[in-house]
Amino acid sequence: MTSILFIFSGAPHTSLNAQEGLDALLMGSAFTDCRLLLLGQGVLQLRNNQEAERIGRKNYTPGFAALADYGVSGIACRRSDLETWHLSVEQLSLDVQVLEDKDCRAWLDEADRVLTFR
Amino acid sequence: MKFAIIVQGSPYASQSCHSALLFADAVVRAGHELTRVFFYHDGVLVANRLIAPPQDEQDISLAWQTFAEAHRVELVACIASCLRRGILDETEASRYGRDASSLAPGFIISGLGQLVDATMNADRVVTFGA
């Protein structure tokens, strides 16, 4: 089975890319093994208690919680990105794997395909 | 080798559509097979048939249509991205009660399954980001 690694590297609500990337991830997980890696500002997608409605946006971020039910086999972010944004895992909306930078490389190596949404 | 291309960037506002077209041309010139080009995010805006650029600028939508016709490449625009951005074929225009369609010839509107299918079945998938 062809495995697909999805990478989201953009902040939430600044563009539609992660929202539409999430749609693609949900579709992909219906067909094959998919994982999600949040890089850079992408880690902000997981910040809990977002109030996107106040800036006229739909808050799509609760959709991340559904990923496990869709069979997405792994969700991860980097420890260095959490530190950059002064985030603790308690401030994230779901349980994720926290990777060292070298482990990120392994995730990339293990995937047959990589789709990036920034 | 089988290639699939994903285009995410808006025409004119980003280099994505143009770089992807140059790459697509290089793929077929090198004798590879280009199975599908999937337009996603703002990339679908290149499928707007009302694009009318100044005469001294490239008509990037027409350039994609010409390329696709010459090499029999499928140009697929994501339906969810299209609907948000006003790219509708006649079926969708009718479904949503809009008074006109706006999809350029040579493009088809379809779902994300086409993206996943292209990703899984091509030997190489190349994304041109926003």
Describe this structure in words.
The complex is a heterodimer of chains A (118) and B (130). A five-stranded parallel β-sheet of chain A has the order 4-3-2-1-5. Chain A is built from three helices and five strands; from the N terminus they run E-H-E-E-H-E-H-E. The two termini of chain A are 26 Å apart. With 118 residues, chain A is of the alpha/beta class. Chain A is globular, with a radius of gyration of 13 Å. Helices cover 26% and strands 19% of the residues of chain A. Chain A has helices at 17-31, 79-84, 101-110, and strands at 4-8, 34-38, 74-78, 97-99, 113-117. By secondary structure, chain B is of the alpha/beta class. Chain B has five helices and five strands, in the order E-H-E-H-E-H-H-E-H-E. A five-stranded parallel β-sheet of chain B has the order 4-3-2-1-5, with helices on both faces. The longest helix of chain B is centred in the N-terminal third of the chain and has 14 residues, at 16-29. Chain B is globular and about 45 Å long. The mean pLDDT of chain B is 96.
Could you write a compact summary of the structure shown?
The complex is a heterodimer of chains A (118) and B (130). Chain A is an alpha/beta fold.
How are the elements arranged and paired?
The complex is a heterodimer of chains A (118) and B (130).
Chain A: E1 4-8, H1 17-31, E2 34-38, E3 74-78, H2 79-84, E4 97-99, H3 101-110, E5 113-117
Parallel strand pairs in A: 1-2, 1-5, 2-3, 3-4
Chain B: E1 2-7, H1 16-29, E2 33-39, H2 60-71, E3 74-78, H3 79-84, H4 90-95, E4 107-110, H5 113-121, E5 124-128
Parallel strand pairs in B: 1-2, 1-5, 2-3, 3-4
